[in-house]
Every structure is written in C-alpha cells, then in structure tokens.
Amino acid sequence: MAAPLFGTPGPLIEMCESVAVYGADGGVSSDRNGTLSEAEETHMTTQVPCLWVGIDASKAHHWWVAIDDTGTTVWSRKVGNDEAAILAGLSEILALAREVRWAVDLTGTAPALLLALLADHGQRVVYVPGRTVNRMAGAYRGEAKTDARDAYIIAETARLRRDFAPVEAPTNLGADLALLTTHRSDLIADRVRLLNRLHDVLTGISPALEAAFDYADHKGALVLLTGYQTPATLRRCGQARLTRWLAARGVRHAETVAATALTAAHAQHIQLPGQDTAAGITADLATQVLALDERLKQLDRQISDAFHTHPQATVIESMPGIGPILGAEFLVTAGDLASYPDAGHLASAAGLVPVAKDSGRRTGNLHRPQRYSRRLRRVFHLSAQTSIIRDGPNRTYYLKKRAQGHKHIPAVIALARRRVDVLWALLRDDRPFTTSPPARTPAATAA
C-alpha cells in the first residue's frame, strides 16, 4: 500500500484546528462559540490574585477576554448587551480572582449599560483608546481581526500599561449635558447641510438673489424665500406690497430687505430651466432652516438651565468668552478635574502643549500634538477668540503676541493656553474671574 503523498494528515489537521481555536496571538477566536478550554476549566476551580478583562464593546453584544498576570487567556466569551447576561458574566469573572481590572475601548452609548453595571458593583474600568488598540495589534502574531482578538489585545494593553484614564460613571447632570450638547452638534450640522443645499438650489434660480443676503445669519431673508423665490414673482409683487408682507411676518427692517431683494430681481429677466421646481425646493429648505433655528433656541435654553445647576457654573461663566453653551461643552469634555494633576495636564488634554520630536543631534523640535480632545481644544480656542473682541487682559495679551510677530492663530492658541491656567486656578479656588488679582490672605503672605 502506497504511503500518503504528504505524510500522515492527522497531526497537521489537529494543529490547524488548534490554531483556528486559539489564534496565533494566544487569544481566543470567535470560532469557539463561548466554550471553555481545559485551561479555563482549571482556572474556574481556583482563584488567581488578579485578572485583567478586556472588553470589545458593540451595540448588540460585547466580547470579554480575561487574562492572568502572564497574559494567558483564562476566560473568553461573547456577552449580550443585556442586564441579565452582563450580570451572569460578571459573577463568573469575579469568582475567578480576588481582584479584577477592566478595560474598554468605547465609552459612548453602546457600553452604557455595561459601564453602569460595573460601576454599581464597585469595579474599576479604564479606557483604552481605539488608536492604541490598533497599534498594539501589530505587536502580536497573525493578521486576524476578530472581536475575541481585539478584546485580548485590550486586556493585554491594560495589563502592560497602568496610565490609562479611568472611566467614571457620569452623574445625571453630566449625562444630560453630554446628550444635549451632542444633539446640538447634530442639529448644527443639519443646519449647515440645509444652508449649503439652499445656496446651491437658489443659484440655479437667480445668482444675484443668492448673493444678496447672508442666509446663515439673516432670518428675514429666509422668511422672504418661503414666499418669493424667483425674480419674476418679486418684480410682480413690488416694493410696497413686499414690505407689508415681510412686516406682517415679523421681519425687522422689512423695507430694506424688500429693496435688496427687488434690486437682485431687476438684475435678471431670463427664466432658467427647472426654475419652478427649484423654487418649491427653495421654499421648503428655507422653512426647514427656520424650524431648525427654533429648535436650536429651545435646546440652548435647555442646555443653559442644566448648566446653571452645576455648583461651579458661575465660576466657569465668569471667564470672558465662556457662556452656557461653551461652559456645558467644557464640563462634558473635561470631565472630572480631579483626574488632572495640574493645569498643564488639562492643557495637554486640549492639545495646547507642544510635543518634542527630537532625534540624535536634532533637539528642540516642538510640534503640534496629534492625540488630544478636539472638542476640549475647540472650547478653549473659541472662548479665547471671543474674549479678544472687548478690551481687557485677554485682548492685551493677544495684542502683545501679535506685536511679537505671531500671526492670528498662534496668538489665539497662546492666549488659550494662558486661559487654561486661569480657569484652573479659578476652579481650584472656587472664585469668579476678576480683572484685578485677588487679595492675598495673611497665611499666603507668611508662606
């Protein structure tokens, strides 16, 4: 009987099955369907000192991988995003070790139930950014991309690094402000999209009428488009009738708006193709923008009311350039200020501290950081830019930087960095901003 061409197939098949089950990186692949290995069953019977649990979170389910201090997987399973399933998995893992450290790669709405249950059971959770997980994946063998492998890498990264930021359970106020400010950002994006579409469609009717107004900031011009969109209809209406029509709808300076619109209408007498259809679309878009503006006004009032319930809202709002909206954004993006040892760490989180990129003899190279909170940087940048409108210490510092040869944006960034120190000190001392320095206490003078 002839021997097999490639030798005995049995061991090769068994080896492939082993790699398919455990993966090339030592983690556990999703082909296991939640079954326990012999090593996991051994760990189930004995407690270990500490376990690190990495969670690859998603909307429908999460994959949990628990590893010991050697990086060996002792528990791996898909857990549904359901309270009963999460509590069952939690009880199993807590029975395996005297101490459990958790790590997640998401902190949004998908893992909200999971994080709330972990916080309710007194578990400490850290946040491992997705960028870090992606880069750490290259340090392990294999090219597979599975939920189990990602969870294993999250757990390993948390085991090797101890400097990740903890995930704190948000208060009701923090959760409310996070939802409201995110919803506001979505509505602002919708408004920008509608205005861009409005400009595009209106240009196809009358370029002169499209250029006559700044529709993003002119409510009266939007009201005009809800009734009159073409040059011909504006000319037929006339100055007096159009002025009365606008005034009846509460448009300020109705006569000026009517005169500007008629000037644009008299600049074009030809009718463009598809004008009637475009006019109906323009009226609909203008109506949507006006309705969206009303929703934004109501939402701004809701954000302002919620922001002013914060105990330090008065301190934050006392800083020139910061109102209720930016103040709420600051509370959401900065989180618990106790997590920042000093003002420098807060500035670094906002991307206002340059990072060194030195190599060999090349030293002193400072560059803009790449990893920081864009929303937090936006808060400090916008507030600094607003604060230089009026005279005061902010404008004085900005003009000083301009006199030193800095352009507008670097000067604003320098001012924003300076304002981080001021806001940090105000929140630390729980006092409002004043243009004059506070009086020194006898104890501070003696020190």
TrEMBL record:
InterPro entries named among the record's database cross-references: Transp_IS110-like_N, Transpos_IS110, Transposase_20
Segments forming domain Transposase IS116/IS110/IS902 C-terminal: 314-398
Occurrences of domain Transposase IS110-like N-terminal (ranges): 53-207
NCBIfam families: transpos_IS110
Stated name of the protein: Transposase
Organism of origin: Streptomyces cyanogenus
